Amino acid sequence: DTAILWFRQDLRLADNPALRAACRDADRLIPVYILETDTDPWAPGAASRWWLHHSLSALDAALRERGSRLHLLQGEAGACLQQLVAASGTTAVYWNRRLEPAAIARDRDIKAELKQRGIACHSFNAALLVEPWDHLNQQGRPYRVFTPFWRSLQPRLDSLAPQRTPSQLPGLPRRRGHSLQLDALGLLPEHDWDAGLHDEWQPGETGAHNRLRTLLERRLQRYPEARDRPDADGTSRLSPHLHFGELGPRQVLARIQQHAGARRSPGLVGAGEQYLRQLAWREFAHHLLYHFPETAERPLDSRFKAFPWRNDPDSLRAWQRGSTGIPLVDAGMRELWHTGWMHNRVRMVVASFLTKNLGIHWLEGARWFWDTLVDADLANNTLGWQWTAGCGADAAPFFRIFNPVTQAQKFDPDGSYLRRWLPELAALPDKWLARPWEAPAAVLAEAGVEPGATYPRPLVDLKASRERALAGWDAIRTHN
Ligand code: FAD
């Protein structure tokens, strides 16, 4: 029999349950990726499209090594699959589930249409440790608080193992219609702003495993102390690989458990647990979006529907460009623009600054991140923004407004992160680096900093804007 394996956000061969099942059942297999021309407001942004291009190229190379190749199509997914089925005489389609609201609705329709034509559809879990309907609280409801979610997940971890994929894949059928060339998908940018991305990333399964190895060999031991420090290269940077499914969470879990177990070092076991706890935030985010699908656009805490957000395009643009005059915010936004990634602590700081000090709606920030992050992920991004804005599940209370000056002093104490991204301030002494507007004129002159010329003056006064934010919160906190 001929089958189709529909790749989506699972761009890997290892631990791929749909691929494994298709290999077991079919004599001929067409691995296909369909670039959807859809009207979804959360269609992949520019940085994600760059990543996708390179990841598809890597996937095709890996398939060729195993005697197959990637078939590429573009269009409406249901119609593309119908055509491919008709051209190849396929009897079954396999895929791994996606749980974003638009993907769920689309998959349901496709499944119904294919079934009507007598085509079997088989779907699997490759993206999560446990799926949302399979991990509820004692009342059978979704968790809305992280700690109990994590506590009840922990005892389940030992039973989750990655699955093996056969080394040789079924061959392609002779008849299968026309496949597009990768370049024809037009995923790469027209203007070459992507040099920074090339320097930083290796999209694809091999790149993902290289990062995982670096985590285990060099970063895990000090992860608990270093993970909060943007100046230390202390986190795994696995997020884009996990988003595109070049690596699955069960694989990460297994390697962490093996590594910590083999070393028998309590420190490493503790660090492994801390790391898995972060990975569980990813699970939590995906479960929340599944149970509360409206939260991609609307606050989970409905009081925030009445929040007096400000419409301020100039400030939004300054934030996007990293020219707010607040060094930690600007450093983060420039890191994002150049590398497609930003450290988690700095993400919280820039998000707090946008939503609270500038009073701009969190969705404006979420959309910018969506276009510029290589790890843009609807579940994680929604959770991150709503958490910081104070309107999400288990969110930071609204009155917790990050102070970008003290955050920089605490988490980048010698200023190396700020100096890397803001060379125009590099000569300032540590004392003034995070708050150049308070530096004496002579110090600024000595460091070659001219406020308003070489580096912007602050867009807002941190204290006054904080008070305005708190007044906005006071106005809505008693709403129902
Ligand atoms: P590590 O510290 O090595 O963590 C390991 C993995 O755990 C990550 O790869 C990620 O998959 C997961 N993880 C860690 N922290 C979180 C978290 N807070 N929430 C959910 N998952 C987490 N992450 C994204 O993957 N995509 C996004 O679009 C995204 N948008 C965010 C927006 C805001 C405003 C904030 C505050 C956070 C956002 N995050 C997002 C979460 C977090 O910042 C990144 O996952 C993390 O910085 C990725 O770096 P890493 O892989 O080195 O993390």
TrEMBL record:
The keyword Lyase applies. Its cofactor is (6R)-5,10-methylene-5,6,7,8-tetrahydrofolate; FAD. Residues 1-129 form the Photolyase/cryptochrome alpha/beta domain. It is an enzyme of class 4 (lyase). PROSITE patterns: DNA_PHOTOLYASES_1_1, PHR_CRY_ALPHA_BETA. Keywords: Chromophore, FAD, Flavoprotein, Lyase. The record marks 309, 362, 385 as: Electron transfer via tryptophanyl radical. Its EC number is 4.1.99.3. Residues 223-243 are annotated as: Disordered. FAD binds at residues 223, 235-239, 275, 375-377. Binds 1 FAD per subunit. Involved in repair of UV radiation-induced DNA damage. Catalyzes the light-dependent monomerization (300-600 nm) of cyclobutyl pyrimidine dimers (in cis-syn configuration), which are formed between adjacent bases on the same DNA strand upon exposure to ultraviolet radiation. PANTHER family: CRYPTOCHROME, CRYPTOCHROME CIRCADIAN CLOCK 5 ISOFORM X1. Belongs to the DNA photolyase family. Belongs to the DNA photolyase class-1 family. This is Deoxyribodipyrimidine photo-lyase.
